[in-house]
Amino acid sequence: MGKQKRDSGRPEFIDFSKRREADTALERMRNVLEIRTLADVEREAMIVAWVNTGHKAETAAQLLGISRATFYRKMQKYGIDRWA
């Protein structure tokens, strides 16, 4: 019998072309010569997750491995508009 695939609850594919801000964040992530703070990287990852999950906080938080409450708290900390 074959091994059963374990579902991590995370999406297997993310379409990074949905929004300009997500595209910009992805381009920055790909540019290894650009030095950014961890806060910048975290903010960009949150934007990409937020946009690509259709603004679903629970799903975006799961994708990032944090709780929904933490996701919302960090959105406020980084000035990410919940309704953008």
What does the model show?
The chain is mainly α and 84 residues long. It has one domain: Arc Repressor Mutant, subunit A, CATH 1.10.10. Helices cover 54% and strands 0% of the residues.
Topology, pairings included?
Layout: H1 20-30, H2 38-52, H3 57-64, H4 68-78
Tally of discrete structural domains = 1
Specify the overall morphology.
Answer: globular
- CATH-derived topology: Arc Repressor Mutant, subunit A
Strands, total number: 0
**What is the mean predicted local confidence, pLDDT?**
80
User: What kind of sheet is the major sheet?
Assistant: none
Q: Helicity, in percent? A: 40-55%
Q: Can you write the helix and strand succession as a string?
A: HHHH
Distance between the termini: 48 Å
Helix tally equals 4
Which CATH class is shown?
A: Mainly Alpha
What are the segments in which pLDDT stays under 50 over at least 5 consecutive residues?
Answer: none
Strand content: under 5%
- Secondary structure class reads mainly alpha
In the CATH classification, which architecture applies?
Answer: Orthogonal Bundle
Gyration radius, in Å: 14 Å
